Every structure is written in structure tokens, then in C-alpha cells.
Amino acid sequence: MGQRVLISGYGAIAARLVECLAAFRMDVVAMRRRPHGDESVFMISLENFGSESAVADHVINILPENAESRSYFSASRFSLMKQAAVFYNIGRGTTVDQEALADALESGHLAAAWLDVTDPEPLAQGHRLWSAPHCYITPHTAGGHTFEAGSLVRYFLGNLRRFERGERLSDQIMWA
């Protein structure tokens, strides 16, 4: 078997992700508040997060936002995760305690974090996650929309032309 993946939150996005991960021969487990029993992947309930996250190489958060999921990924949950696991947040920013995540990255407990969503969004200029080791933040575009590809190509080509002319890029983040 390949690496172990724990998907937190199982709905349509997670079901499609399971299909995509099959090509990589990963051992996939998914967590759902109330497993239905008809899912195409081995399911666990919330109570089993600790034991499953302790052996998962990758933890993918797709939890919805609700009262129970707010800051679900807290310092205590990050501490339960396997040393050197990689964390991904493609669900809701509010489900992750951003400071606890920064602590887990800075301490080296987590190997990396890939974040398509944060809370708040965007993160403030001086937020620790911008400089946390091995933290990769994307601009919340994982879902996309029908006309996005063409718009992104035009945007990229415009920035490429500006780069070639030595001009400032559009939406360039200037920290100093």
C-alpha cells in the first residue's frame, strides 16, 4: 500500500477526491459525523479521529462550517497527528485554529500545510502562516468556475508581459 490519507468531512468533493487518489494507490480513510455505510471508502466517525490521524501521512480537511466544526483542527488535534504528516485545508477556514497550525509547523510536528482557505481570508500581512516553514497558501480557487480558466490565462499572460518589461506585477504582494 501507498501512503495513508485521512479525509475529514465526506461529501461530494471528498467522494471525487477518493476517486482521484485511487490512481496513486493510497490507503484512504474518510471521517464523517454519521457514516451512512454506503460510502465507497472506509469510514470512521469523529470519535476515531485521534487513532486514525496518528497513522495518516496526509490529513485533508473538507469539513463544512457549523457550530461543531469551528476550530475543529485545534492544538490538541494537531498534536494527535502523526509526526511529519502533511495537512491540507480545502474546506472552510473557520474549521482550523490558524495559530495552532502555525505552532505545529514551527515546531516541526507537521511536515507541511497546503491551504486553499484561511480565516480570515485573506490573512493579514504579518500573519505567522505567511512565514511558517513549509506552509503553502493558494488564493482560494480550488473550486473554480466555468469561465475561470480563460480569465486566469489572460491574467497570467498580462503579468508575463509586465515581468518581461520589468514592470510591477498585478496583485504582487509587497511586504516591505
Summarize the structure.
The chain contains six helices and seven strands, in the order E-H-E-E-H-E-H-E-H-E-H-E-H. With 176 residues, the protein is α/β, with parallel strands linked by helices. It has two domains: 4-143, 3-Layer(aba) Sandwich (Rossmann fold), CATH 3.40.50.720; 146-176.
Structural class: alpha/beta
Strand content: 15-25%
> Major sheet: order of its strands?
3-2-1-4-5-6-7
CATH fold field value of the largest domain: Rossmann fold
Q: What number of domains? A: 2
User: How far apart lie the N and C ends?
Assistant: 47 Å
**What general form does the structure show?**
globular
Can you walk through the features of this model?
The radius of gyration is 18 Å and the shape is globular. It has a 7-stranded parallel sheet with strand order 3-2-1-4-5-6-7. Helix 5 links the parallel strand 6 and strand 7. It folds into 2 domains: 140 residues, Rossmann fold (3-Layer(aba) Sandwich), CATH 3.40.50; 31 residues. The longest helix has 17 residues. With 176 residues, it is an alpha/beta fold. 30% of the residues lie in helices and 18% in strands.
Structural topology:
Layout: E1 4-8, H1 12-22, E2 27-31, E3 42-44, H2 49-53, E4 58-61, H3 75-80, E5 85-89, H4 98-106, E6 110-115, H5 128-131, E7 135-137, H6 148-164
Parallel strand pairs: 1-2, 1-4, 2-3, 4-5, 5-6, 6-7
